[in-house]
Specification:
Main location: nucleus
Number of helices: 14
Order of helices and strands: HHHHHHHHEEEHEHHHHH
Strand content: under 5%
Largest sheet: 2 strands, antiparallel
Pfam families: Myb_DNA-binding (PF00249)
Subcellular location: Nucleus
Strand order of the largest sheet: 1-2
Number of domains: 2
GO molecular function: DNA binding
Mean pLDDT: 54
Low-confidence stretches: 1-26, 151-253, 267-325
Organism: Juglans regia
Number of strands: 4
Radius of gyration: 22 Å
Shape: elongated
Length: 325
DNA sequence: AAAACGTTCAACCGCGGCCGG
DNA sequence: TCCGGCCGCGGTTGAACGTTT
């Protein structure tokens, strides 16, 4: 809301206009649209502070607002909530976003759920305006987190793909190539992966490995689902027997929460992961913490997604998390 | 100084999942 | 089982703002 006093209702009205199946609350004539005014913010905040969130459809009327419920919910979630953190994304937050995006794809709400105070909208915007470009400038496909010249798969037109198809994005649409060698790393001309501010060094993301590193694994991709969910099985070469797979397919909230938390602190993660993997399989894990970012190591077979859902620190919507368990 | 161009981000849209009747 | 409403999600838009020419 750069200038709340200026109404963009006409532009917004011109934008919609499809006339197809619009949500009733949004098609109602007479409802205000566009930037929120401080007065509206206050009305909404006061009402929610008093009555609590929820029942968005009827909330505007009860709160005395000429807005649709969706608009109210969005305003509250992305702007007015007390614990929404404003201001620049810190390097460590950026690092975490990169990690989580590589794991989760464009599932902004899940990513936001792991970054306290940040909203899905904010992260999505930040990704599209900063991180995506940054990765591209480094020769990395922001969609797959793989080198651009390595990815021969056609770029899916975001417009052409339904948003719901993308609900289960596969960060690596090419699971047959789990290993990226140094031949595939971006050349230094397109930007060295090690940034001067150092956060990429700490990030230790696959593609961001310093030149000269021999092998960069993308091991987790083996067990990530395809966009249709068909790739969830543990048929990959994880070395587990069916029985073992049954065991490790169980992934508790704590385990996965630890996994995600460990992305924040990779050293801790590496140690924890080794214990986890050894306990579960008896197989000595690889020592390279880089290789440890491997979902399969946490038994994330068919249940990996629900584990993510249930383990999310979702300050945005705890109810939804519970709902999805 | 101002026009042109680029970037940011709040807000909107359509869709699908969930749930109660 | 079906249907309709609600909710939340990801994609997209466009006005405001910043930068360059």
């Amino acid at each position: 809301m750069r200038n709340p006093s200026s109404s963009s209702s006409s532009a917004a009205a011109a934008k919609g206009g499809s006339g197809s199946t619009t949500t009733p609350c949004c098609s109602k004539v007479g409802l205000k649209r566009g930037p929120w005014t401080p007065e509206e913010d206050e009305l909404l905040s006061n009402y929610i502070n008093k009555e609590g969130e929820g029942r968005w459809r009827t909330l505007p009327k009860r709160a005395g607002l000429l807005r649709c419920g969706k608009s109210c919910r969005l305003r509250w979630m992305n702007y007015l909530r007390p614990n929404v953190k404003r201001g620049q994304i810190a390097p460590d937050e950026e690092d975490l976003i990169l990690r989580l995006h590589r794991l989760l794809g464009n599932r902004w709400s899940l990513i936001a759920g792991r970054i306290p105070g940040r909203t899905d909208n904010e992260i999505k915007n930040y990704w599209n305006t900063h991180l995506s470009k940054k990765l591209i400038s480094q020769g990395i496909d922001p969609r797959t987190h793989k080198p651009l010249n390595h990815d021969s798969s056609p770029v899916i037109n975001a417009k052409a793909t339904s948003s719901k198809i993308n609900r289960l994005p596969n960060p690596n649409p090419n699971p047959t190539s789990p290993v990226v060698t140094d031949h595939d790393t971006p050349n230094s001309d397109s930007g060295t992966p090690i940034k001067e501010n150092g956060y990429f060094q700490s990030a230790n993301l696959d593609q961001y490995q310093a030149p000269g590193s021999r092998t960069v694994a993308v091991g987790y991709t083996n067990n990530l689902p395809n966009s249709d969910g068909s790739g969830m099985g543990l048929k990959s070469n994880n070395g587990f027997s069916t029985e073992e797979e049954d065991d490790i397919n169980y992934c508790s909230d704590d385990v996965f929460s630890s996994f995600l938390n460990s992305l924040i602190n990779e050293d801790g993660f590496a140690a924890q992961h080794q214990l986890q993997q050894q306990a579960a399989t008896g197989i000595a894990p690889v020592s390279d913490p880089l290789l440890s970012i491997n979902v399969s190591s946490f038994g994330l077979g068919a249940g990996w997604e629900s584990a993510i859902m249930s383990s999310s620190f979702n300050q945005n919507d705890p109810k939804r998390v519970n709902d999805q368990i």
